[in-house]
Amino acid sequence: MAHRDDVRALPEPYLRLHEALARHLPGERLVTDPLRRLALGTDASFYRLTPRLVVEVRTVDEVRRVLAEAARLGTPVTFRAAGTSLSGQAVTDSVLVRVTGGWRAMRVLDGGARIALEPGVVGADANAVLAPLGRKLGPDPASIGACMVGGIAANNASGMCCGTAQNSYRTVASMRLVLADGTVLDTDDPASREAFRAARPEIVDGLRVLRAEIEADPALRRRIIEKFRIKNTTGYALNAFVDFEDPLDVLLHLLIGSEGTLGFIAEITYHTVPEHAHKASALALFAGVGDAARATMLLQGGPVAAVELMDRASLRSVEAKPGMPPELAGLPDGAAALLIETRAATPAELGPQVEALLARMAPVRALAPVRFTAVKAEYERLWDVRRGLFPAVGAARPIGTTVVIEDVAFPIRHLADATVELQGLLATHGYDGIIFGHALDGNLHFVFTPDFGAEGEVERYARFMDDVCTMVARRYDGSLKGEHGTGRNVAPFVELEWGAKATGLMRRVKRLLDPGGLLNPGVVLNDDPRAHLRALKALPHAHPILDRCIECGFCEPRCPSRDLTLTPRQRIVAQREIARLRVTGEDPAALERLEHDYVYLGEQTCAVDGLCATACPVGIDTGEHTKWLRAQAHADGGAAADLAAVRFAAVAAGARAGLRLASAAHAVLGTAALAGLTRGLHRLSAGRLPVWNEATPRAARAPRLDGTRRGGDRVVYFPSCVARTMGPARGDAEGVEVHAAMLSLLGKAGFDAVFPPGLEGLCCGMPFESKGWPAQADRKGRELEAALLEASEGGRHPVVFDTSPCVYRMRKAAGGRLAIHDPVEFIQRLVLPRVSLTRVPGPVAVHVPCSAVKLGLAPAFRAVAEACAEQVVIPREVGCCGFAGDRGFTHPELNASALAPLAAALPAGCAAGFSSSRTCEIGLSLHAGVPYRPLAWLVDRCASPRAGRDLEPPVPRMHAP
């Protein structure tokens, strides 16, 4: 996507850096085009800087080379993992070095007591590996589903439960790190430690001198100890000099929380902590934050895992949302709540722990009796109150405003007074904000939404920050940053909190480890008193679907194009800039270039799977915006789509003819020749002609109802247009059409299957919708609904599809007027109780299509597969397959990128995989190296009619879910 002109336009010395790196790195990993530099350079903070050059590294040697060339040319370097950081520590206007797309290796050690992780591992993925062992990472940031281990360690992130005892600083076991000059140290390897001492004596001696100075100053030493009794990520971890004697152990712990300013973390090994399976939670309501704070103090030292404080404003922001406790709406002004959780290894331990906590809290009067629940569905609803706070503010903010979430900590004895004073400061400066936080740690977050584009807003924010920092640091001797990292936002205030002497030691640490000052300059320490007011991010109006985005990045791990082009967050960033340029008219050439590049980077390689919405705090489905863009491109046409909708049976017949022709060509030319030929035609046609692959299906045979009419319970079966068109791959000797497997299985279960009338012309409309033809999609949906209503006698009989994406589409289109069942859901609920099963040996893989994930059916997929196979694997490394209807043929690179981890994730001996979307199965088969077939095929293979089935009661009338 980069143009030669983009490279030539680089200013010195970035041009020379690019030239030097291009001799060793693939060109696609040196990003110079304007759109991707803007999009990739965005993080979750309220700062916006655009890097001159983005470099994607995959190995330690590549990191060393980048550092060496950057040092030679004097170009600053900033490391980036997931970019979920909130204080501006992951943005730069120089060189951005990204570890996303790689660095995902994990090694479980000592039976789970330790785990070694590369910096690109998402925290939740590490916890998923540890969960079967009853262990987890100590740090538990709210962003753990998106943030990566490199960022967790570099920011010393904590969270709701880890406090100061289980954060990265306290649980790090060892680290492989790279210093600014390229020196590598593995602190777990004695040979590496000795080599480092010999090669870098000035660092070893320099750290020893700094430690000796602290030890010789009792007042300073006491201050350091006191500062870290509460959460503190302001400045560097000076407690390393107090807690450790060996300079290399000091260095290891200095890297924690250093935000990439002292070195690069290539691998980190953590001591893990127990993950207790049994929990009980309570929402305790109090008349004010004072009572809530006193109750928190009484809970300290008890069997409590988490205590979350929420002020009245925060509760008001969520009280009207579905599922919230009804008592929230009636709380008086000034009220506050504590969300309390206790955890235990066994259910028997929970009862005594709950009683102990209630006894501790008893001296503080609550507004209502405090009741704990150990029922998961109930305590999850309580935690939804806490989880909903930040999204509620983000979703409700006026368009154009920025979400600012600040993070401070106080000695807990000051929590009540500090909370009230903080509420007063927000009101004094005219901010309508909310306050919540990790009460056990005295750690408060406050959220508000300034409009940095409005006149005078920056100065108002400046006055507010001055007052907050003075209040926290001077009045209460608290932490200006408890867990979000210093970043740019409080870098000018580090000396206000720490004093001149301690801050001077931090500056000496920086000079010792980064004498050139090239690692993430301006972060952690900054001499500019207004640094926190520069490069503030504006969030201009782009589109109603996108405007609520707070650019947190939670969506990114779910996106199949994340390692190929852009993520949902990055698409939104690009759209905001395109919208801004359209309004201002300031740079027509830049606008034209962004619009041109977005076609491929943003629109064509978006799978429109909607999984981004399942992770988004405010529920944004970026795929819906992509469909809107495609519809805009078709705004002046539609005759071809109208014709295809009207003559859909002929279109399907033509598709089958094309598959027969491709299969014949395969027989004549062979796999390699046909694949090469179609790739060439694909390139010559500018991507219009599809690419054939060895998993491309044969034409499907027509579905037949023979053998299913046995006088049993009636079910309406709709074979999707894909199932009626695409049979098994030519090389799949065992595969059959999905409709053949479904009809066989329904017959074994004693169902009489009927098709809706006019089957060949029916379609749910998804192919039209995904290509940007919403009117034609709705027309086909209405036609199918009418046919299903007729066949089901007005909804009297259940309706089952064989393809999950069609179910998702029709459940939305039919609006609950029909009971439409996903095939796997139907099999689990109504087929398995009616058949006998013989499980197949060995492991099988299962892929849950995106639509089934959004319908909450992943547990059903596992349950059905486990009923049929001895071992079932659902690779966590794989989400959306990226085939996206026909994108796997027209943009095969999207499918390849999305499924790059699949083959390695399958266990030895896995000979087959199963899903419920024929197009997904094509891409999965291609990239897994084993055939993927319909899950209904596996069940049919294992099933036989159950004896005595005639004694079963008939299936009751089904109601729409």
TrEMBL record:
Keywords: FAD, Flavoprotein, Iron, Iron-sulfur, Metal-binding, Oxidoreductase, Transit peptide. One of its GO terms (biological process) is lactate catabolic process. SUPFAM superfamilies: alpha-helical ferredoxin, FAD-binding/transporter-associated domain-like, FAD-linked oxidases, C-terminal domain. Its EC number is 1.1.2.4. It comes from the Bacteria. The keyword NADP does not apply. InterPro entries: 4Fe4S_Fe-S-bd, 4Fe4S_Fe_S_CS, Cys_rich_dom, FAD-bd_oxidored_4_C, FAD-bd_PCMH, FAD-bd_PCMH-like_sf, FAD-bd_PCMH_sub1, FAD-bd_PCMH_sub2. Residues 538-569 form the 4Fe-4S ferredoxin-type domain. Residues 47-275 form the FAD-binding PCMH-type domain. This is D-lactate dehydrogenase (cytochrome). Belongs to the FAD-binding oxidoreductase/transferase type 4 family. It is an enzyme of class 1 (oxidoreductase). It holds the Pfam family Fer4_8. GO terms for molecular function: D-lactate dehydrogenase (cytochrome) activity; D-lactate dehydrogenase (NAD+) activity; FAD binding; iron-sulfur cluster binding; metal ion binding. Its cofactor is FAD.
